[in-house]
Amino acid sequence: MRNTNKQDIIDLARRAGNAIMEIYQKDFAVYDKTDASPLTEADLAAHHILVEGLKRLTDYPVLSEESSEEDKKDRLNWDQYWLIDPLDGTKEFIKKNGEFTVNVAFIDNGKPTFGVVYAPALDVLYLGEVGFQAQKQTGTAPLERISVREKPARASDYVIVGSRSHQSDEFKTFISDYPDADIISMGSSLKLCLVAEGKADIYPRLGLTCEWDTAAAHAIVEAAGGVVLQALTNQNLEYNKENLLNPYFIVKAK
User: Do 81 and 159 share a structural domain?
Assistant: First the structure.
């Protein structure tokens, strides 16, 4: 990410967020992608702002959730690139609960090393650079450093990110090791950010996600002192794989 002004990336994420909010505050059209997931006008507006902006600001290629299939094949030859999700949490956007984000990550040889997660409806921004620090900004307040919290002494003291009402069998099995733990819910990549800022201890993602869903928040978690591990192997979650789907993973403090 040499010669890249990080503030430029933050400003770009905010611009994409502003474009999303213009549509969020009025009626919007919802289309279907080939996989039948909802696609809004806001996805495409943010996509164009981010892709064009990153190409103007840097020399690195860009992969977006909305990129062409050709780009999604070509990225296997990329060592360093931007990985973005223009609107993570499309369902939250359609429900108008505010829990959706703009995700911008930098991938270096299969690892997310820098990430920005911006929730425009909440006006909350998370920023992380691995090996440096993680930060959070609410509104126009100054950036403040964030970090994962210390491991609780008792299993019952854990705060776990997950659904209170729609729990899979895998999630129920996982939380059985944490009797009386507090379960909190959140949409989109904000779930990982809850661990990064010390508001939760563990986020078990025991369902499918794509690389662009997690990369930016993954970098923030690591910058805050946490880890994102594959659930079955306990190895770090990796990027730019042949298959863009992530395996199940666990987010927690080191």
Answer: no
Rg from Cα positions in the chain: 17
Q: 3-state class of 46 per DSSP?
A: helix
What's the farthest any 2 CA atoms get from each other in the chain? 51
Element (H, E) at 218: helix 211-223
Structural domain harbouring 165: 155-253
Q: Are residues 132 and 206 in the same domain?
A: no
Query: Do 70 and 159 belong to one domain?
Result: no
Could you tell me the CATH number of the domain that includes residue 117?
A: 3.30.540.10
Closest CA to 245 of 62, 44, 72: 72
- The count of C-alpha atoms lying within 13 angstroms of the C-alpha of 149, restricted to the half-sphere facing its C-beta, is 15
Within-domain flag for 1: no
Highest mean pLDDT among 15-19, 24-28, 36-40: 15-19
CA distances from 170 to 20, 204, 205, 214 (A): 34, 9, 10, 20
In this structure, the answer to whether residues 195 and 137 fall within a common structural domain is no
74-88: per-residue pLDDT in tens?
999 999 999 999 999
* Closest C-alpha among 221, 19, 29 to residue 120: 19
Cα dihedral 123, 129, 134, 140, rounded to 10, equals -30
Tell whether 40 is covered by a domain: yes
In a domain, 126, yes or no: yes
pTM above 0.85, yes or no: yes
Tell me the pLDDT tens digit for each residue of 223-247. 999 999 999 999 999 999 999 999 9
Residues of the chain above pLDDT 70, percent: 94
Cα separation, 251 vs 237, whole angstroms: 10
Q: Looking at the domain assignment, is residue 120 inside a domain?
A: yes
Query: What domain count does the chain have?
Result: 2
